[in-house]
Write a structure and sequence with these properties.
Elements: E1 3-9, H1 14-24, E2 31-38, H2 44-51, E3 56-58, H3 67-80, E4 85-88, H4 97-100, E5 107-111, H5 123-130, E6 134-141, E7 151-158, H6 165-188, E8 192-195, E9 198-201
Parallel strand pairs: 1-2, 1-4, 2-3, 4-5
Antiparallel strand pairs: 5-6, 6-7, 8-9
Helix pairs in contact: 1-6
The structure holds glycinamide ribonucleotide.
């Protein structure tokens, strides 16, 4: 039995590629990526999917009169494909309750900071601007808040003296590429249990 995974992404897609690479190595099982949905026509992630023989569906958010209508279109596309777990891999849209309630505790998000610090669209830049000495990566379940759901995995990244975005960003991404597939595998294998805000990982 496989667990059908739908990935939502908006941009470059390095995390989507990391998920595909993990799958090719057998490290996502029983998870299986069945579709990529992208809200930006022409985004590089679309080609990344096509190169790997994974269906890429483009659903431009601009085509919908409201956030809810866009979210319903996403839900419909995922349901048509019997998707069980949704992974947001650099999906840069805020999702409404229409989407979140369709897949309760089945939507995994990736964020380039140690939540609850530096939520929002520029976790790396905001951490640098604030001057923190440690930042990191968070993989968490989505709830109806922005970047607020229960945390599955987190890993810290130390910021070196005087370090800028050019070197910090690739170091944060390297951690993302490692821990996102791990978190997805744990959820796909049913090894996570949510108790309030806590995600218990069972061995
Ligand atoms: C990743 O760094 C991810 O953490 C971030 O977008 C990037 C996508 O990169 N997501 C957010 O900031 C969500 N708020 P990718 O397209 O190369 O995977």
């Amino acid at each position: 039995m496989t667990t059908r995974i739908g990935v939502l992404a908006s941009g470059t897609g390095t995390n989507f590629v990391a998920l595909c690479d993990a799958q090719a190595r057998g490290e996502l099982a029983p998870g299986e990526i069945v579709t990529l949905i992208c809200n930006r026509p022409g985004a590089p992630v679309i080609e990344r999917a096509q190169e790997r023989g994974i269906e890429a569906v483009v659903i431009p958010h601009r085509g919908y009169p409201s956030r809810e209508a866009f979210d319903q279109a996403l839900v419909d596309a995922l349901r048509e494909r019997n998707v069980e777990i949704v992974v947001l891999a650099g999906f840069m849209r805020i999702l409404t309750a229409v989407f979140v309630e369709a897949f309760p505790l089945r939507i995994i998000n990736l964020h380039p900071a140690l939540l609850p610090s530096f939520a929002g669209t520029d976790g790396i830049g905001d951490a640098l601007d604030y001057g923190v000495k440690v930042t990191g990566v968070t993989v968490h379940f989505i709830d109806t808040g922005v970047d607020t759901g229960p945390i599955i995995l987190q890993e810290a990244v130390k910021i070196a003296e005087g370090e800028g975005r050019e070197t910090l960003e690739p170091r944060v991404h390297a951690v993302e590429h490692r821990i996102l597939p791990r978190a997805v595998q744990l959820v796909a294998a049913g090894k996570t249990r949510v108790e309030g805000r806590r995600v218990i990982i069972e061995n």
